[in-house]
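Entry 12.
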Amino acid sequence: MKVESEGRHTMTEKKLYTCDICKTDYASKEKAIQCEKNHKLLETATIVGVYKSMNAIKEGVPTKIKVKFKGMDEFIEYGR
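Predicted 3D structure (tokens):
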């Protein structure tokens, strides 16, 4: 839609839909909804930490985290 600004120039008005999880903009509402449904949310995940001794990691944080999302059979492993 063209909109006049102070009678001199025109600009194009755009309507975008944004995925509330990753903040990506889409021209279609359906694509934004599809994007939101595609994300595997941590609220529905099982998270397991893999730790080393305090001599190896003084901060006590895990060296790896394994995540299993709802509806998945296998864990996905993330490392430092």
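Annotation: Residues 41-80 form one domain. Residues 8 and 55 are 70 Å apart (CA to CA).
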